[in-house]
């Protein structure tokens, strides 16, 4: 026979009373689990909402305000910029930084139709926060490995950032796109042709409703005359060209029979496939080292001849690189717009007043100001609602647990009074019920958490899981806080009830 | 007053209990309970029987005040149960565990526990050996005609009589000095009540323990009691129950005795009946 100890009745009492508190068919427990689940869901959704707002706040479309600069107001804009970048002003208005940008209309080739269409192209500072945010956007479509046959990009190359919609409009596949057909219209000295400029990123959208963006050095060069922008050879004196409708042997034969073949160091050719419509042959030429800069310009025209320049579908491609040195060093983009980045939008109205004060001629879209203010308001309301939901659920649990426990004690008051009369101390009773309540709450939290995880799993299947955040430190703090409040308040109720003497319990006084 | 035994286990002196200040509901100048005794406390409803049970059983203290003493004597030491209330709650709980046991008319079984667990609990709370208590409970069940299979059943599946017997076994299964019963046979048929009383009396006599039962049943009392005490109205203070020596009857040489007069069983029944009825008439008047 098992030796009796004080633990024998304790374990028996805890087991039986715990089971009784689960309720008929575990009904009481299920209700608490449902309440706990509601609290965790409310918190999870609130945290998800706050997380989404935080992401939106980091989104350049939310935290950036764009000031249009009228023609000829570049100096005024620069003065306004300098005034806004004073540390005290930046701090007061929550301005993190700013940059000028230029917006131009540029032509891109529609690969399906063989026609050029214009798109809005803006410049981007290479190291700006906006560029960083665009390139780290979670929804970014981005590839490092291009389609078969295109050359790999050296790390110092610049590239375009283009919207997915633009890519689709050009009849290209965003998932395999490596380079974008940037159309350059010819002049008297040269025919029109297409440059395949490397694409660094494909994004959902770009600020200012633009279709593509290029880094400032590229934009600077794009402002230059045609010949300066089109510099087909890279720093290694190497160029690649894509030639349609000619096989490798025919191209090689043309190159080798050229009177300038002696200036070519090396030729590599292979079949390249850009899309489903055309098959190209990619030819990479490396010029000898002693072929100078001037001769390279001449070579541009020769390449056109080699590839059949009369045909507008003749395509040239070459590696692009950002050249901030030498002749490009002091060149600037045109100041068409001023972009300002904010860490908070609470003082955006004050920003507007300040802008009017420092640059009366500059205007800002009021709808953007209102949107920003609304965003700020929504963020605050979401935080308040989250706290409110948490408190509401917490109070619900506190009331439920207290009500349940008090009901249970009332129903069993005579039995408990009798056990107390037999010598079960108040301290023991309180201790055992405290253990029961702790176990009860922990189990309810565990089950509630599991159910919320299941909901999260379902949401993941539906693709909307980002609206529910579970593994968040605040959630665990809230759970601990919830435990503390529920356990302490319930313990207090139990203690108060069991303050009665055995006689009062038995005779219901 | 030592007709039954030499040493009292419970001694009451000059007890006055009041629920409202200066309005005592019960007055007991002198009462001793001896080892092995089964004392029946009779009286009309509201006369103060349950008050005595609560106070002497260390279950409660009347809010209007209490004077006098209720002393327990155990192993040469006297403990005044009224004084215990001024000490730590654990002290009074410990006292209850070591000295007291109870059986109530309403049985007060814990519905969430099996019948067997209910009967084992007091012994376990006292720290007794679970095996010994278990065997004792099983033996009592046999003596009271309860099937062993009822051990594992929940109380709410038992009849009123079965529950009452379970409550009796719970009271007897642990260690105690004095057992207090509040109408413990109120829900039982006469035959079951008699078998319970028989068991209780023999258990008390064989173990040297004492029992104090509050009851209305003077027939049962006259058959099984070692002593019968009748609480009547205090003629000097209306609304106060009084237990004085004149209304205490005990058995001597097989006869009931009171104030040196012997009473036959029939005479005693008539006397007790008259005493209680007179009280009721008095109240109505």
Description:
- The complex is a heterodimer of chains A (509) and B (285).
- Chain A is of the alpha+beta class and 509 residues long.
- Chain A is 50% helix and 18% strand.
- Chain A has helices spanning 6-22, 27-58, 60-63, 74-84, 87-93, 129-135, 164-169, 216-223, 226-229, 248-256, 293-307, 348-358, 366-411, 413-421, 426-462, 473-497, 502-506; strands spanning 64-68, 95-101, 103-110, 115-124, 160-163, 179-184, 193-203, 212-215, 238-244, 264-273, 279-287, 315-317, 337-342, 363-364.
- In chain A, helix 1 packs across helix 15 and helix 13 packs parallel to helix 16.
- Chain A starts with 5 loop residues before the first helix and ends with a helix.
- Chain B has one domain (8-113, 178-284): Rossmann fold, CATH 3.40.50.300.
- In chain B, helix 8 packs antiparallel against helix 9.
- Mean pLDDT of chain B is 88; it is low at 1-5.
- Chains A and B meet through helix 1, helix 14, helix 15 and helix 17 of A and helix 3, strand 6, helix 4 and helix 5 of B.
**Number of DSSP strand runs of chain A:** 14
Amount of beta strand of chain B? 25-35%
CATH superfamily of chain B: P-loop containing nucleotide triphosphate hydrolases
Number of domains of chain A: 2
Using only C-alpha atoms, the radius of gyration of chain A works out to 36 Å
SSE string of chain B: EEEHEEHHEHHHEHEHEEEEEEH
The Rg value of chain B, from CA coordinates, equals: 19 Å
Assigned CATH architecture of chain B: 3-Layer(aba) Sandwich
Roughly what is the average pLDDT of chain B, rounded to an integer? 88
Basic shape of chain B: globular
Order of the strands making up the biggest sheet of chain B: 6-7-8-3-9-12-13-14
